[in-house]
Amino acid sequence: MDLLRFITAGSVDDGKSTLIGRLLYDSKNILIDQLEALEKSTKNRTDGSVDLALLTDGLRAEREQGITIDVAYRYFTTPKRKFIIADAPGHVQYTRNMITGASNANLIIILVDARQGVVEQTRRHSIIASLLKIPHVVVAINKMDLVEYSEDVYNNIVIDYVEVAKQLGLNDVTYIPISALNGDNIVDKSTVIDWYDGKPLLELLEEVEIDNDINLTDARFQVQLVIRPQTDDLHDYRGYAGKVISGIYKKGDKVTVLPTGIETTISKLEVGGEEVDVVFAPQSAVVQLADDIDISRGDAIAKIDNQPQVSNELEVLLCWLDDKPLVPGNKYYLQHNSRLVRAVVKQIDYKLDVNSLQQQPVEGNVKLNEVVKATIRTASPIVYDSFHKLNVNGSAILIDETSNATVAAVLIQ
Amino acid sequence: MSNYHLNYLEELEAESIYIFREVAAQFERPALLFSGGKDSITLVHLAKKAFAPGKIPFPLVHIDTGHNFPEALAFRDQLANEVNTTLTVRKVEDTIKQRSLTEPKGKFPSRNWLQTYTLLDTIEEFKFDCCIGGARRDEEKARAKERIFSVRDEFGQWNPKLQRPELWNIYNGRIHKGENVRVFPISNWTELDIWNYIRKENIGLPSIYFSHEREVIEHEGQLVAMSEYVQPGAEDVITTKKVRYRTVGDMTCTAAVESTASTLDEVINEIISTKISERGETRIDDRVTEAAMEDRKKNGYF
Distance (Å, rounded) from C-alpha A62 to C-alpha A206? Predict the structure, then answer.
């Protein structure tokens, strides 16, 4: 059994919470006491049905105001897969949260209201999906019950979205007509939408091929910490603990330690204290090297014949996540996986309109939820790949030196 | 499917080990909050793997309410000894005396809420900048919204509206003096994941997780163990039943489940077929208000 992480995105009234509630409810992942609590909160319903949307509202303010403030994580399991849902709010002002939830997702469900069609929010969510390189996109055309399950309405929306997908370079897009409220095409195939010959949503989620989402070609490893027990029996032990970011490493591989560029050989590999011959992404491992080299947290180990880039000047896209605006010339910390360096945002070239993808001039400071192209200079070199080539080694965050807040998502170009 | 493929338990394990290593590298004085339950026992097992062949580079800290199951305490001592790390115990009893706190009353006088005082005092005493906890997001609604690295202010308070964005697997543990971070390495695990992992890794548990005979009284449909801490009323009938525990907390606020499951396989089968959630079935204290956990977390609870 494997693990699929997905995010749901939609505008305020697209029925996102109802969809999640329906997935959990119909796949029997809601238990009696949770349902009782739900029934207690659903006071004003005349028809006696429960409001599945309430399942996903966690904080008191959210229940009181009927909105979602922050990303919530939900879990459910079927005999085929374990699922982690990042449930992110849809409002424009919560783009920050959507980026947070989308950053770890294999798949995004973009909800479209059948009555509204492709709207600005759809476009914005799709742009975020393409910016963050989410491998699989499902466009769920919801509220089909309110358009009399019309195939024409569905087809017209698909035609519109195909254009969006083409423009954004979204390759793997699947379309499903659903009614989250009535459960059409969620867990079971709808009997009403008989003209649709695809799979219901849950089956699609269970079967989408995710093996290829992990890059096993370009081997990247970053050191989190050095393990030196310094006990009598392990006196000379020196192991580099870290995560295989991508690719495969074998005992005996010739490697280069970066940014120093020193070459050596892997002498031993361990996972969870057991010696192994091979490690691969996304395992947490310990690497031992044949030569005694000065290596510390944040250094990278790559193969001699396949190396990442090393630079202290980075061209980046910044998604600004803080209420305090970005002031060009300000200093921040840049954290690239475990490597933390001081950095300055030197230059801001243009702003990317997240509704049209058009480049616009930047007037004044960069504000919350804006995406800009910028140049960053770091105090010491970063070992990276472009986000486009290898997203797991091309992403970073900026941290405000004074507030310690995470203020930007960094996509290295 | 290639040979280079992790199943979901291996993927969760890899993620948790990564988080443990980030904690050890980013903080000066971390501690692992150890409750004696299966989640914190799993945490210790994961920490062992994260730092092998070295030892776990932080102490285990137990905030002892004084209402613990003796079996859980014995297990705690044995485990700390086995992994060869420091075990620090601070007692709620002492905090109550020092700070003249009011002891809760009633039939099941829970010290759950008072633990927060002892925890905050302990953080202060040892200048811990990070406390690792075994909370899972599937447990409860407020937990579902908490980050893996959750910053607390100098009063230990969680502010759900001011959480840091947590992107990819980059964890920002930078804090100001006096603040601390609560880190939850098993955030993405569910109750069933924990049980399956315990079975896969053959992790030992206190005996109360398996079926045994115990004197209990029935309270609003839940079975509560008789102990010196429980004050039964005249109407309560004490009976002996075959029970096991699904969670291990205080004797006053953890309910038992009637069960004959005496092996891991049997326990897991029962959990798969149960229709009631873990907290709903076993935690007496969460029933008070719908936002009980949210309120406690805002005040510095785990």
Answer: 31
